[in-house]
Give the backbone structure.
Amino acid sequence: MPEPVSPPVPQDVVARLKALLGEGGWSQDPERLAPKLVEWRDRWSGTTPLLALPRTTRDVAAVIGLCAETGTAVTPQGGNTGLVGGQIPQGEILLSLERMNHVRDVATLDDVMVVEAGVTLAAAHEAALAAGRRFPLSLASEGSATVGGLISTNAGGTAVLRYGTMRDLVLGIEAVLPSGEVWNGLKRLRKDNTGYDLKQLLIGAEGTLGVVTAAALKLFPILASRAVAILGVESPHDAIRLLARAKEETGGAVEAFELVSRLGMELAVKNLPGLREPLETRPPWHVLIEIASGEPGAAEASLERLLGAALEEGLISDAAVAQSEAQAKAFWALREGQSAAQKREGPAWKHDVSVPVSRIADFIDAASRTLEERFPGVRIDAFGHVGDGNIHYDVLGPAGGDARLHDDLRDTGAHIVHDLVMSLGGSISAEHGLGTMKTAEAAGYKSAVELATARAVRAALDPGRIMNPRVLF
Ligand SMILES: Cc1cc2nc3c(=O)[nH]c(=O)nc-3n(C[C@H](O)[C@H](O)[C@H](O)COP(=O)(O)OP(=O)(O)OC[C@H]3O[C@@H](n4cnc5c(N)ncnc54)[C@H](O)[C@@H]3O)c2cc1C
């Protein structure tokens, strides 16, 4: 189905926007625009009459104020790593936060860092480390994904089981609301019980309730020891039992617990240069576990204890413990390269879903059984953040298979997977958001009262529906 397109922006509005942004503050250069108008998997491409490049919150307020006055639609964009199409404009003004990339303050006594929305996650990590602290959110797109995008998608990643999602890591937000007014909510408080929490409304709003311009982020102590291993398990059922054991054995020090299937391992080794199978026994499933502790040597000791117990109890069949930082990185590359490795195999129908941790194995079993019966030859690659209940359940056609099967998979496969997820008390979007890709489908799973409430909130803040009009309800 073709995506809806926003009405053309009148030329005089474009001229007024250019004038208020000034030289360097906008672009219509096709070469400059091109990388911002396609998504990294080439699933969406877009158009815009103008790329706005504000440098300050005041610039953003002026742009949004003019858009509100003239009923002009705007799509905010950070690093353009979103996976559901929400950052790609279809005729709207494209507002990039790339020039708002300053770290405003790192306050170690408060354990807080205030950064602008265009700061990348990698730059935020560096700024925290330079002050002797750590910002724990971790994901494979960290070199490009920005704080504004991470907040707007309520990003998750690999450390959610210990630190939570972005929603748990943001103490304050500065934003320009759809009226063009600036809301300075850059508080640094861990306790603030003064009514509705506007910051939480903006987190996960995917650019529909305003433009995030800066945020106060929680910092944590640097960890003194870290142990990474890849473990062989017979099934996702064993992986889940192992997770429970690991939490008990380490006193909650499991930093990441990621699942990789046999197919996923084979695709990574085949399609990504320089990667090797970590376990010679080639088990059907792998768990990448990372344990971290504030105490020197404690992570390694916990891992050793866990491996002894897990082998004895038959929870794991094999184990490779990283002996150096380089080896730990190589193990992580096998996990983080899963999407890139699949990309070389042709289309994959991806499902970013979550279910209660206790139901993960049941979900994988039931979904795979149904899809394999319905589409003989499909290849299932289920992997991801099972430590927090999030599975990237990806379905590839048979190697070199025919395009009709792919179409059928796209049209009906998602409903099969998502209906099952919902029946298990799960979510059809664990961490990527809805964007333009999943909004209509998600509406079908929400109750009338939930949709009406969401629409009432949006209409109250953005009566002209100028902010990312094609995204969410
Ligand atoms: C290789 C790879 C791995 C990934 N792994 C993960 C993962 O493990 N976990 C995870 O959660 N995600 C993951 N993602 C998805 C993506 O990185 C996240 O959704 C990220 O939060 C998007 O940030 P961004 O700056 O690129 O935002 P964009 O893609 O530019 O925008 C995303 C959405 O946020 C809105 N937006 C952006 N900036 C602002 C702002 N300042 N104010 C208001 N709205 C704004 C946009 O309009 C859009 O709706 C991955 C992506 C890739 C490519």
Remarks:
- Residues 459 and 465 are 7 Å apart (CA to CA).
- The longest strand covers residues 225-233.
- Residues 40, 75-83, 86-87, 97, 117, 139-141, 144-146, 148-150, 152-153, 155-157, 206-207, 211-212, 339, 431-432, 435, 468, 471 surround flavin-adenine dinucleotide (CB under 6 Å).
